[in-house]
């Protein structure tokens, strides 16, 4: 009998309703979202937010000949999600699983294996043949970024297609500007660089690149990459790419070029440690055309074989897109040291500000109305214009040195073997010098942050490993100081960028 063998998630058609209000639903299809205690079915209609409650006698399974009906086991593509979390799932393929919830179907994402609850109106039904036809078209057009995303996790990819994709990527000559987002142009005072062709949304993928060469990070990394380059250029197609796309990249200062080959100089200027494979360095010719900024609006997500550049924020049309060549949490002087030998000095807005006032060396006055500076070019003795409190730079730096020595101790086996309660008492005097209300040491210096993180960790281990009446207070202190750490870390990453370095995420761990 129609309706009486239906379960949540089954696609159904409404029929036989005779009331004026109900008859308008006759012929509509949807999915069973819920079965009420009175035996009626809540139906989530397709292309409508209305959810009529219908007797089982007025439902029947939707005709299997209907091409749009989505059933358990169907291959679907996720589309049209607009929320901050949901939009990352758009264009992903998945398989409809049993266990639908109210108004949504359970979809197992092919690329990750995770199950997500998705509204049916955000799902497009596909067949294996349609997907493989699309994949072949992407390969022929050279859209390898989209092809990789399409095939990731699919169980039915033909071996010939997989091998063709792998071979194209392994050449190291492929790159794509994605979605018409960018254009390589001349940038005044910088040489080449990328500007946006349209308005860009935060998180949008801008460029995909493959590594022309890569190797393990070490003392001979540039010479090993030079050898790899020469071996690759034995093929004419690769040799042409090498001449036009690699050898035209910026090289180091002229003095450096006099004592080493041009290729080595180019590699030293453009090769960077990869994010996902931190023991490797790689050369990405297209990514190398992005200019640097310490307050970058884009980020290069790199492995030893591939790189994807994404927008860190919304970017206006015509604006230059920059990435950071170094960890952005570092003080200005440390950042400048990493550019030595690369043929440029950073003069971004952040660096201009921090020449005068580096936030990592600021020490707030007790009155809260003024900040002293302990950076190199600051005066040795300073006085608050509001409360007349005197500040000695050398004394502040001395406190910072003690903090650094304590952090070094916390990395030893002796500290690891110590009772966490004893560590708390050892750390407490130094912590009191760097928290709010004290004007003895910089509050957001990397060493200060490390001290606070150590203090938070000591409280966490005291709460979880040492029984006693202190546990509740230690838990609270652990989270309170962890918040201080994250606030200070965010300050150190500078104004004008949403980038967060690995140390920021590592500091969230206890």
Automatic annotation (TrEMBL):
SUPFAM superfamilies listed in its UniProt record: SET domain
Top-level lineage group: Eukaryota
Molecular functions (GO terms): methyltransferase activity
Alphabetically ordered keywords of this record: Methyltransferase, Transferase
Biological process annotations from GO: methylation
Pfam families: SET (PF00856)
Residues covered by the SET domain: 180-326
Protein name per the record: N-lysine methyltransferase SMYD2-A (Histone methyltransferase SMYD2-A) (SET and MYND domain-containing protein 2A)
Originating species: Durusdinium trenchii
